[in-house]
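Case study B.
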Amino acid sequence: MDLFVNPSGELSLYRQIMRQITDAIAGGRLKPGEKLASHRELSEQLVIAPLTVKKAYDELEALGYIETQRGRGTFVCAHLPRTDAADQADQIRETARKLLSQAYLAGLRFSAVEKILKDADRELTGGSAKNTPGEKVKS
Amino acid sequence: MTPILKFTNISRSYKKGVPVLESVDFSIAPGEVVGLLGRNGAGKTTLIRIAMGMLYSHSGSVRVFGLSPTEEPVAVKKRVGYVAEDQVLPARLKISELIDFHRYLFPQWNEALERQLLDRFGLNTGSKIKQLSKGEARQVALLCAVCHRPELLILDEPAGGLDPAARREFLETSIQLLNREGTTILFSSHHMTDVERIGGRVVLLDKGKVRLDRQLDELRDEVCMAMAPRASAGSAAVFEQMRGCLSVRLVLDEWHAVFNGSPEAVRQELRETLGIDGIRCVSLPLEELFIELVGGDRKEVVAA
Amino acid sequence: MIWQLIKVDVAWRFVKRTAILFGAFAAVWHFVAHHASHTDRSGVTLFLMFFAPLFSLGVTPLVQPVDTRFQATLPVTVRQVFAARMLSTIALQWLPVVTGAIILTVLSGPGLSGMPLLPWSVVTCIVLGIQCGSIRGFTIRRALAFLAAPILLFILDVAAVALDWPLQNSLAWYLAPVCCWLLTAVVVARTWRLVPAYFQLPSAEAQPAPSAFVADNAPSNSRRLVFANIVSPHPAWIVCFVIVGMLAASNWAYQIGLLWVPLGALWESTRSKTRWLVVLPVPPRRLLASILLPALLAVTVGYELGLRIPRIADTLERGVVVTANSVAKITNISKDCKMFNVIPPLEFRVRAQADHAPLIRAPWGETFQPAINSFYGFDVYNPYASNCDNSERFLDWQFARATTAVYGQSIPRDLAAGSYVVISQLAIPRIRKHLVTIGVMAFCLMLAMLATTLEDWYRLRRIKPVLRRIVCLLASLLFMVLFILFNYLCQWLSWALPSNPFGALAAALAALALIYWPLDAMFRQLEFEQKPVRSRL
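Model:
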């Protein structure tokens, strides 16, 4: 899978990697059980320090998104961490309110925001919404 | 574990009263990557030359692999690879002759790596060194420094004056070495993006003294800069007295103060000290941090 | 404007230092030369003459083109640069020598007849000619310049000197240098007119198109060869060393001081060439050996060659001499007595054990009591001497003995040839003298190396630059003293050392070890700080 890092970006490199991997898992581009590149391969591919990759992987492992199987490599967890969907929904509602407020202040209408959301979805999932790991949540 | 490179209280002055290095003290563990940063003339090259035994320190000592590079130069240099921006390779030799010479000096030469690098760089081994461009000559120097499997790689602005593609190749080769051989790397550079890529630890020299010695990740997460309006504080001392302040400078109409700590904690502290809420605190990319810590003051320019 | 250009010209920047050096040398010469019985002042100026041209040739034609590239960007015309260069070269040629000559005059009294104008003018003209060539863009291949220059200069120097002495005080002696200068003026004027108004730098050498990447699998040279190839001195400097060696065999043996010039330049070029070696695990000792051994070999070869070339060899050492008149000065016998004496090379004199020399007794009973002379502080006598009172038979007998001792076989003499007879066959000194001379040259070489590298020694680098230069100057002067006393030292040693060659060798090695040890220690402690200088060779 294609990762991209920007050394002068706002986030430190390992966080950028973490963000991109979690995005990919969220969008379904990385399926549970899929094999990730090894430290060495990723560091040589991205031209960054291997320790940075290791740190990103360690954090993701601590959060439960990936797991390392000795001798076989690093894989996306088959069962992703169960977070309470209800709690998350509240936070997401808050974020949505902020987003709409920002958009309306900028003069965008709801239909424009909808379009923006659709584009983002396409980027995350690579086209097919069926890939997302989540379940339907009663709103 | 014994450090691979250990500087103990190194001092050197150009003449009386003009120090080039002052009480520089740090060590590098095996497998570490350390970036030596600093302005031109801060003493980076002098420090590196002292590590290589090319210069003597006026006080203090340096130990490489536990040996003194000035007293046992051959034993030390057999295990070290060195590439510098101001290196001058022998002009009359052909590349193949230079490689042969290195092969003769270093019995543990890695032929496979040599072939791979020659392939990657696309060098014609029959051409003379004086016919090469700067980038190609630097590639040859890197090849010669790297193929004998050194335990310590010392790079003195290796990518200085190279185009971005050549710089990237350099970085790739260094990272490959890091991965496959576990080489310890000490390098000095002005390209902050390269420093951020290769990671590790950062030692910042300012006028010969060690100003900062932190892991790169910590710098991004645990150091931030507050930008307060000029009117909020009468002088720099207000900030300097605060806990965790690394540097303060006045940039046009704003105070830029660099603190140890996360942005929220720093904002809180500023609220308590200055009584102003919502001061912008940002984490800095390395280049901005460098400029804040060792750049000069930029006072307001009075309109003519 | 021209003055400004002169001030930044590289030749001018050396004038001050060189003038001080020559002045110091002249002073040292004055005080030391008495003991070495060298009162020949023209020898001094000859020595000085050698320095400056080699120096100018070494420094200016190679560095000035680099300056040209910089000056091409300035708002100056080519003619101004040309004039500045001519003037500063002339300054570098003449000012230091004049300084030395003035100091000598002040110390030894007037009488500067020892300053040979002709050879000096010839040398100046050659250097100026080369300058003219270089400003017009004729680039001589560096290797050729360095190879040809010292040889050419040497030949011209010797020829000029050979012509100078017989021509002295004749009209030709004044005319010849004038002609030289006129010729130079013509060349300079022509160059002046032909020089373009604007700088045109020669286009960069066309880079050969890189051929397709071909793996060079040819087996490498022997590893030793690769190393030697890298650090060996340029052939031109080897020639300089050979010439110096030849001089060691000659009457101008004190010109061994010239050793310093090629050695200094060799060290400079080596330092820049081998800066890249500093970061490699090359033992410093090997580097030192690779600089010293070729130089030593070259000097030895030069010495052996010089011993065998008739004109070069020392008159005192040329062969067995039978002489009439000059003996009177040595043995204090009245001039009326037309006597003949047999004078072998100096090393065949014997040290006197007692107050008077032993009586020489011929098989038929004739005797002669040789006088004791003092040579270099030793009391020696000539065992093959004879004088007025002795018969011709005695003379023949002594001559036969002398030639047997020197050449290994008895050679008949022929008195008809004139008031003195010289055996044209050169007497090659015995092994011991060779060893002693080569040993002393090696000592001088190492001492010169010490003086040259002293500047880079780390302990010295800590003190102020001014002090550092003074220390180096003092070391150099010590070195110069040794040169002046070179003959003295060689002869003294050859008499003082044990008589068998092995004993001499052992003593020589001990002395060499004595100088080698600090040199080796210091060589390990050099600092390489400056930005690398682009190698001029």
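Strands of chain C lie at 321-323, 341-343, 350-351, 360-361, 367-368, 372-375, 378-381, 421-422. The remaining cases will be described in the next quarterly update.
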